[in-house]
Amino acid sequence: MKQLFLAVLLMICISSVGCSKSDGLAPVKPSPSGGGTSTPNRPGSIGIIGDTSNVTKTVNGGMVLMGGGTDVDAAFKWMIERSGGGDVVVLRATGTDAYNSYINGLGNVNSVETLLINSRELANDDGVAYIIRNAEMVFIAGGDQSDYMKYWKGTKTEQALNYLLNDKKAPVGGTSAGCAILGGFYYSGETGGVTSAQALANPFDNNVTLYNNDFLKVPYLQNIITDQHYLTRDREGRSVVFLGRINKDWKTAAKCIASDERTAVCIDKDGKAKVFGDYSVTRPYSYAYFIVSDAAKQPEQFEANKKVNWNDGQQAISVYEIPASVNGGGNFNVTNFKADEATGGKWYWWWIDNGVLNKKDQ
Description:
The protein is of the alpha/beta class. It has helices at 2-18, 73-83, 99-104, 120-123, 126-133, 145-152, 156-168, 177-180, 196-201, 236-250; strands at residues 45-50, 62-66, 87-92, 111-116, 137-140, 172-175, 185-187, 210-212, 224-227, 255-259, 263-268, 272-277, 287-292, 317-323, 329-333, 346-353, 356-361. Helix 5 (126-133) runs parallel beside helix 7 (156-168).
């Protein structure tokens, strides 16, 4: 009888364990310091703050294009508000979990976790995809965008990000390299960087490596390329060359959204953009630029190993420049780039003469 009782008791214990609640990933105790090493049972995780149990919150979509350098607090708060206070996931291929405590200190969220996805094996891991798909907000850190392309493109990580962007419609943002991959057209930098001087001297330089809508599918950005660290690294000329190459290679009159450092373009679910940052007259490097090419205005000279000429009566490229504000500067409709819907900034003409970029007021 005693043996029968023990057998029944054992069966009850096994049954109760098998029916216990599980979110598919075993919870772990958050590291007080934010981690820095792999978190057990959470593939790719190098640290988590908050509750490891998945929560479901109502989200309000949007995108953040951040220009690198100092992070923009207001832009993160903008995303956190749209996340409904759910789970925040930071993605990167190099670096630490330093964003965890920073983001956690900017608003009330269920958790903040950093995934270091630095191999295609990890990018195809079901556990990694699970964490991303169940996030209410994702932020892609800086680094090297060619790593993101090399490790993530064509994987379950890419699928999870596109699910968030287009089905779940959660807020997604990126800074520097993380911003570079958010455009439908994107510059990979896989063979090395390219400066404005190099691109303007030879628009077919080997380092002008561009791709067309084969990675992330961000709402409203399919016809757009992004650029970052804009005035700090003198990237205006190369953006114009990128637009010229897209025109030549894919017969598309694309557009560009570029941001200075400590500047973020926040685009809501309806495609309306505002510019957040810490612009001041004593620190004038905090603008965003909405750059428009025109299919009817073709470069006069755009060939390999020859300096670019793209004049068209000194009106080759139309540019709307918006200064950043802590509360969000200006308004711009990225669904149509219409001039009469833009406010809070100023329109300019850009053109190129013999490899030199020029500007004037419209």
